[in-house]
Design a protein that fits this description.
Blueprint lengths: L2 H6 L17 H15 L1 H8 L6 E2 L2 E2 L9 E2 L4 H11 L9 E2 L1 H17 L11 H7 L7 E6 L4 H10 L7 H6 L6 E9 L3 E9 L14
Parallel strand pairs: 4-6
Antiparallel strand pairs: 1-2, 2-3, 5-7, 6-7
């Protein structure tokens, strides 16, 4: 993996039991910085994904070191190559501003799954929109989640490669120009070791965006 990239992201694994419930951790800061690095130059970011190619043994993605689990992918290196081709066609996007309300709703999900070992966007029947409303915001949010990565760039790369996801929904969510805010919470997971939840929205708290201005 590119050493300069690791240093630039400020990579330290500083997960707590409840992660970003109270304050943004260095890891979450790293994911946020990496997300904005990608959005500022998607075409250039595609070059980083080539670092994954040598790590594949068939469809098995070998972890970077003993802290990161090996992941059995569905598509292998083909999904990486597709992501590289896709990103090289993209133009720069607006960078995202940090949102504490979005981060708190993300942390609620981390807190539940870090105990239960569940995966996915729903816990106890509540999805990201319901969690955001419970925090006093609105339901107009997009949520992406990764499991098993212990570096900020690994989190963003997994979302962009989007192995096995029909329609590449996570990749398209990260590429959505309308997103202006993001909140991130990461923590430990009893099955996959780590998890990271990112909520994005056009508004700071997921409320309805203002109507477009009449010309």
């Amino acid at each position: 993996m590119n050493k300069a990239r690791l240093l630039a992201a400020g990579v330290l694994l500083t997960f707590g039991v409840t992660a970003a419930v109270a304050a943004q951790s260095r890891f979450e800061e790293g994911v946020f910085a990496e997300l904005n690095r990608f959005r500022s130059d998607p075409a250039g970011y595609a070059d980083y994904l080539s670092d994954y190619r040598p790590r594949f043994e068939g469809k098995l993605l070998i972890g970077n070191d003993d802290r990161e689990i090996d992941i059995m992918t569905r598509e292998g290196v083909a999904a990486v190559d597709e992501a590289i081709r896709d990103l090289r066609r993209e133009k720069p996007l607006p960078t995202l501003a940090w949102s504490n309300p979005l981060a708190r709703a993300a942390a609620d999900h981390v807190a539940v799954q870090s105990r239960s070992g569940a995966v996915g966007h729903y816990t106890k029947g509540r999805g990201p929109g319901e969690r955001m409303k419970a925090r006093g915001g609105g339901p107009y949010v997009s949520e992406v989640i990764t499991y098993g990565h212990h570096t900020p760039e690994g989190v963003v790369d997994q979302l962009l490669i989007d192995d096995g996801v029909p329609g590449r929904g996570h990749r398209h969510s990260l590429l959505r120009p309308a997103h202006r805010y993001a909140g991130i919470a990461c923590g430990r997971h009893p099955v996959h070791r780590t998890m990271c939840v990112t909520l994005m929205s056009q508004t700071r708290d997921g409320s309805a965006p203002p109507p477009p201005k009449r010309k």
